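Lay summary. Proteins are chains of building blocks that fold into shapes, and those shapes determine what they do. In this project we predict the shape from the chain. Here is one chain we studied, written as its sequence of building blocks.
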Amino acid sequence: MSFLNGLRGMAGGKPELNKQWKIPETTAEVDELFESGSGLDIIYKHSYSCGTCIFAKTRVETILEELSGKAVFHFVDVHANRPVSNYIAEKSGIRHESPQLIILYNGGVFWHGSHNDVHPEPIKKALVEVSG
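And here is the predicted shape, written in a compact code that computers can read:
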């Protein structure tokens, strides 16, 4: 069903998001993610008009429950909230792409990937590395 929901996103409607996602709405909320001691945060940047994003989002959502309590997942719709998306690029020093996933640990970029790198295995591997 998740794949079909993704196709709905390409057709113009936005599927419901998994309840695990937090949605930063302001640059002040983004600043909090980049503060020292903020813990483990995962930012996923998504475009509902991109087929690659639909597959990437589906893959990421397969590990949301597994990683619940270990990391906080943040979802950014790059079209609906362009200022937040651009601000993340500025704060992280990582050029915007979508799909894009950025792992922050205590306010610093630990790992990032775009397009086909947004896949459960490298994400889980990075989380094992950062968690020790």
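What the prediction tells us: The two ends are 35 Å apart (CA to CA).
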